[in-house]
Amino acid sequence: MEFFETVKNIGSDHALVVPLTFFVAVLCFCLVIGHLLEENRWVNESITAIIIGVVTGTIILVCSKGKNSHILTFNEEVFFIYLLPPIIFNAGFQVKKKQFFHNFLTIMLFGVIGVFISASIITAGSQWLFPKMGFHGLSARDYVAIGAIFSSTDTVCTLQVLHQEETPLLYSLVFGEGVVNDATSVVLFNAVQKIDISRLNSKTALHLFGDFCYLFSTSTVLGVTTGLLTSYILKTLYFGRHSSVRELAIMVLMAYLSYMLAELLELSGILTVFFCGIIMSHYAWHNVTDSSRITTRHVFAMMSFVAETAIFLYVGMDALDIEKWKITKLSLWKLLGTYTIIVFLVLVGRAAFVFPLSAISNYFIKREDRSSSPSMISFKQQIIIWWAGLMRGAVSIALAFKQWIQSMQQ
Cation/H+ exchanger transmembrane domain: which residues (predicted)? Predict the structure, then answer.
């Protein structure tokens, strides 16, 4: 009896420590299971974390007698300030720059123009088909938000099957598009929140596109500037002669500073920290000691890995949130129908830009080289790129939570 009383007191005095401890313990369990399934090419870390999250959520749901399925509540500020930056920065830091910039125009076509095409089709399709399924009550802004949310892809599953050495072009396109369209989707989502969608016309659309171009360009410039400044500081002051810890610290803090400055200036922190990562890996990385080079790559990869695993673990738990399921008034068949419509629109939206934009890219490559170029995208590769976009990742999840929270507050 005294033991249970002690546990109760600990829970009351440490309201946040106890659930965090449990969550970290489950997170460690995810890493162990992920390691054991490393050789399995059909189950990746994300799927493992979601499954473990669902199992954990079920246990919590039973222990709480159906009241709750997770011990932590989603906070968009925590996600966008603490979890997302290391994921995006590591993507830029680890990217193979030669392939990325060699196919830069194609990646930008897929990651920017493709998002606008996909978002338009998903928005128009859902606005037309949802009411036919009995799904009413969404505003024009909600439909545009749906288009932006489901235009962000997660290519982790596909990249686990592809090999960078065997298919460098395909790997570069899938990886590059995945990162750029994440940034584009967030910029588009935030831009949509600032305008009156109900009065959307050619002037408003032009204003939206102008805001997007401004955010995209200024965010990129800020990221490049911060990366170059970090490289200059490391080269001039030579931190490594005293301690490699300072080298690592200045890189981490400058990368995080670039993200926070972008958010403070109402720019795109994702784009800023992504290009900051690219510049740092190209310049700053060569201005540090050999030990720091090894350490930085492992530290950044570790931070990104833990953040992604934590996100998918929470998603698994949240899938059984009874309160969210009680809010909807739709039947199970209508929910399945809505889900089917979304999947269908995502596939149509991707097909609407992958194949035409691939043809445009191949056309310009032919004009430049006047011959068959190894950078041309074959039809089989286009199919893989199209299918890879079916997956949705951490950014889509965060935007969906953010939109849901905003809708609940209105």
Answer: 32-401
